[in-house]
Amino acid sequence: MLSPDENDVLTRVGPSTPMGDLIRQYWIPALMSSELPAPDGPPLRVRLLGENLLAFRTTSGKVGLVDHVCPHRGASLFYGRNEAEGIRCVYHGWKFDVAGQCMEMPTEPPESTFKDKVRAKAYPCTERNGIIWAYMGPRGDPPPLPDLEPNLLPEGHVEIWTALRECNWVQAMEGDIDTAHLALLHLGSVSPDELIPGTFDYYTVRDRAPRYQVVETEYGTMYGAYRPAGDETYYWRIAQFLFPFYTLIPTGVLGVQIRVRAWVPLDDQHTMFWSIGVPQTQLRTNGRRASSNGAPFPGTSGGPKFLPNTTDWLGRWRLQENAATDYGIDREVQRTQSFTGIDGIHLQDQAITESMGPIVNRSREHLGTSDAMIIRTRRRLMRAALDVRHGMTPPALDTPALYRQRSGGVLLPRATDWVEATEELRRAFVGHPELVPHA
To answer: Are 63 and 82 in contact (CB under 8 A)?
Structure first.
């Protein structure tokens, strides 16, 4: 368990907090390019790390991300005019470019040089493969973008979607590095008799208590969770945490799955979840989930359904089912078919992590052996945050190639060193045609 002070270090992300200062060192996925579809279009309210910001696309297609407050008299630039390479406040006409420099002050005398002395707070942005990235850190020359595999593939090969989660980013992220809950939360109503022997889910359901090995990496942490498979083999689920908020989950076959997830703190109590990856339909492999009749398991078929976006600070990508609707739980389905009665793996995860409250009280936890990855990752995050306070460079910040990683499931002989044996399979941008069956 953590003390209240340690919990604050782990979870708080506002300006001048240890964790907030750490995360600001890295590029942050701020919004999808499709959310600013047209030059000179309407600006968009965006909250990041506790700051209320305004995103806009200029005539030339550049993206600006500025403080929504006009530095003149405090009016919101959300009501401004996006025109001719800048956002113009409609109160007195002050206009700002994507760097925050004041371009025009119509209410000042023509000879005034005051505009050259005024800047709006602005953060650099860049775009890559459908994502607008923001840098909110102290460097005048930002670090390179991380080499996340799906963000470097040709456009059209990758699926991107986001969803708002109404809880702190750490408790949301920790669901991704907790493999034990798969066998209960998502597959708790499934028995081994319903599964095809030899599939990954068959081994998962046959033994719902995996053993863990956790290691620290140059870029974060990694676990191998193993269960008996054959007499001489283990089924390993290998997943990773990468600084500052990325996870690689083990839902596919190691060496084939290409997917990264991000848990971006909007503020202390709200998180934007990102899923960036090659759709599973393009990655048919011999380890994919299968029931005996080929049908989806009860409770696992529902995809995310969204409310219409609104223009408020937290109005983007909210799920249709939420705490107000008890996540659509069907008690009869829970009693007779599904372990949770909540349809959809993402929604099940969302219900659980939000049910902990906006920020979970970790001083009341009782952690077990299945929480080894969570314990190690918390320590790694807090240590890195405090190291930044002492002037140290955060992990992997200037080495984008460290992010070239994969995760997934694999069968290995029991005597094998799993870290050494999977080194090549965990390497991104490496093809493994032997893992994909012929059509």
So the answer is: no
E strands in 117-219: 125-128, 131-135, 159-165, 211-216
Q: Which residues are CB-neighbours of 274 under 8 A, at least 6 positions away?
A: 29, 160, 161, 162, 261, 262, 263, 264
Domain spanning 150-435, CATH class: alpha beta
For 184, list phi and psi in degrees, rounded to 5: -110, -65
Distance CA 218, CA 431 (A): 24
Strands (E), 194-289: 211-216, 220-228, 233-242, 246-248, 259-267, 270-277
Phi-psi region of 280 (alpha: psi -120 to 50; beta: other; left: phi over 0): alpha
Is there a contact between 11 and 359 (Cβ–Cβ < 8 Å)? yes
- The tens digit of pLDDT for each residue in 43-102 reads 999 999 999 999 999 999 999 999 999 999 999 999 999 999 999 999 999 999 999 999
Of residues 280 and 330, the one with the higher pLDDT is 330
0.85 exceeded by pTM: yes
**Coil vs helix vs strand at 222:** strand
DSSP code of 416? S
- Tokens 């899923």 correspond to what residue? 275
At the top level of CATH, which class does the domain 27-142 belong to? mainly beta
pLDDT digits 0-9 by tens, 287-332: 445 555 556 677 777 789 999 999 999 999 999 999 999 999 999 9
* Domain boundaries of the chain, sorted by first residue: 27-142, 150-435
3-state DSSP assignment of residue 117: helix
Instruction: Name every residue whose Cβ is closer than 8 Å to that of residue 230 and which is 6 or more positions away in sequence.
Output: 411
